[in-house]
Each structure stands twice: as structure tokens, then as C-alpha cells.
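Milestone M4 deliverable, item 7.
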Amino acid sequence: MTEPAHAFHLAQLNVATLLHPLDDPRTAAFVELLDPVNSTADAAPGFVWRLVGEGEADATGLRPAGEGVIVNLSVWQTLESLWDFAYRSGHLEAMRRRREWFERHVEAHLVLWWVPAGHLPTVGEALERLGDLRAHGPSPRAFTFASSYTAAEAVAAAGTETPAVDPATRTARV
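Output delivered:
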């Protein structure tokens, strides 16, 4: 049986280690891009949700992956909608300049995975998926743009018709 359109959404987490604190003048250009890039994401076709700190406009104040490490966690209707935002919008300018603000990655910094539509992943869930990717490489459970899987492949790999969701934590186990 084919899943209905958008029965699953794509979650993404990326992490970046700052070269300098956010209030440092050397990071000012990045900080200035936050509102425009986040506004572009919010208005992008296929955008569903993004993590923000309580009472904040973004998640840069959160440090769940360690001091100096900022996180970006969002949900998109499709892989294509996330790709279009990442590589065909003003976000691309920020990516081109990332070496000015962030340390070079020595391990995976971006992870993608499928969630049931309506599920908002927790930071803990996202960091666990990133850890899975780092430890085991790409799989239907945790992958990248370069090694992507469909929602159907994720469901098949999990051995269930639909992902189980723990009602206590709202964490999808695909």
C-alpha cells in the first residue's frame, strides 16, 4: 500500500561550532543573516516547523550539543523542499560564508530522518539520530542529502507499517 502524500515529514538537524561567541564582532555578519534566513525558511514551500528558544526568534541561545555549538532543527514536508531552501534561497549565502563563523567539521554535522506527519522531534531525538549517523553511517534511520532514503525505505527498515511513537516522549522510532 502506498503512503498518502505527506504521511511523513523530513526532520533535519545540523550543528555548528562557533569560532567566536555570537556577540563577538567577527560573528556579526552571521547574526545579521539570522532573521532574513529564518524568515525565508518560515515562508518556504514545504516548511513545517523549526526549533526556537523560549521567547526567542531562533535557537542560537540553546546549547544542547555543548557550549559554543549552535543547533538548527526543523521539519519539512519533503526532501526536495528542504533542498530548495538550503541551496536555492538566501540560505546559500550563509552556507558559502560558514568558514568565517564556524569550525570545519571533522564528523557528520547534518542528519535527516523521516517522522510521522504532525510529529515534532525533540532535541534529544535529533542528537540521537546524529549520533547514529556518526557511529554507523547513513541508513534509512539517519541519513544525509548525499545518501538519502525515502520514508517507505525507513518504514521498511524499521520493520513496521508505520513508525511507533512513544506517547510519553513523542519520539518516533523509525
